[in-house]
Amino acid sequence: MKEKKDHEDREIVASFFEExxxxxxxxxxxxxVAEGFSFSEPVVIYDRELILNTLGEAMSSDxxxxxxxxxxxxxxxxxxxPIYMTTIKxxxxxxxxx
Length: 98
Fold this sequence. Notes:
Helix 2 (48-56) packs across helix 3 (61-73). It is built from four helices and three strands, in the order H-E-E-H-H-E-H. The protein has a three-stranded mixed beta sheet. With 98 residues, the chain is of the alpha+beta class. It is globular, with a radius of gyration of 14 Å.
């Protein structure tokens, strides 16, 4: 069932924003889209903690954080580059979001 939901999230975003940039392998981490003055077009929002948890299934926690910062957060793919959100709860639990 999780795979179906992941696929549906990607399809929903793509149906409204056909040129949206999506992070491969993290469809289950999509929270929605963001709009704002600093964005020329809407961008996809991902759950940072869920991405780290997903990465942590294949590597250590430290490796997951390093991979996230270098390969995901550090990737600029144009004006539609996704953004990554840390919830208030995750900030409070972690102390600073890492």
